[in-house]
Task: structure prediction
Amino acid sequence: MKLIPIYRINTYVVPESLDRVIEGVLSVDGLIYGNYKNVAWHSNDGIEQFVPSENSVPTEGSIGERKQVTSFKIEFSIPRDKNLLSKVIEEGIYPNHPWDEPVVQVTEEYETRKHG
Result:
């Protein structure tokens, strides 16, 4: 067994943009986990809420009014490399995500590898 340092990345997206965001990430990194590639997880039917401020450019909702939308959580990991992390977020998530300010959460963790 090996412990591998990784970044765990979470983001939330409306269902109709799920595949676009995942494909955007995959265009930057193959999301390899051991002997597997394209390894990602997503939930179904969560509720995201927000209130757009005066400086926002909302895709959904109106400035100053609370909006709730169905969203999915996407979760995946990449090797702990800051340049790769920036590229995944700036080239994989941001241009493929419909929101003006996507929620992207990054934590430093370890994953196990049984083989290799």
About this structure: The longest helix spans residues 82-93. Residues 2-113 form a domain with the Alpha-Beta Plaits fold (CATH 3.30.70.120).
